[in-house]
Amino acid sequence: MEKGKGxxxxxxxxxxxxxxxxxxxxxxxxxxxxxxxxxxKRAALRSATxxxxxxxxxxxxxxxxxxxxxxxxxxxxxxxxxxxxxxxxQTNQWFAASHSLNSVLKEIGDFENWMMVMDYDxxxxxxxxxxxxxxxE
Length: 137
Known about the structure:
Layout: H1 2-136
């Protein structure tokens, strides 16, 4: 029976070594799978980071462009306000000059009227004097 026992022991040892080999292979496979999964995670993280950076750059570019447009608009508004102030000043000057011209024209009209009244008065006085002179002769 010792002969059969030796075969059994050898069979147990072979089975044990086979199981041990299977466990080691499975362990190595699990390590390789874990390394591949970790590498895939790192690659996905790098890709996500890259996409995030591209999105942030795109948004920042639009924000920067909007900010520059806002500054340009503010400068244009300031220039337009300055131009409006100049036009307002010119308009006020033209209004004052027009008012002065109207006053002068009114004065001229008043002077002309005064001259006509004076002419009429002088003619009336002259006519009266001529009547007096004629009646005194």
